[in-house]
Amino acid sequence: MKAFDEMWEQIHKEQEWGKYPGEEVIRFVARNYFGMDRSETTLLEVGCGTGAVTWFMGREGFKVSAFDGSKTAVAKAQARLKEEGLLADVQVVDATAMPYSNDHFDGIVDSAMIYANKVDAIRTILGECYRVLKPGGKLFSTGLFKVGMTGYGTGEKLEEHTFRELTEGALAHRGTAHFFDQDEIIKLWSEAGFKNLKIDSVDRTDRGGTVHVSYYMVESEK
Question: Where does the secretion signal sit in this chain (predicted)?
Answer without folding.
Answer: none
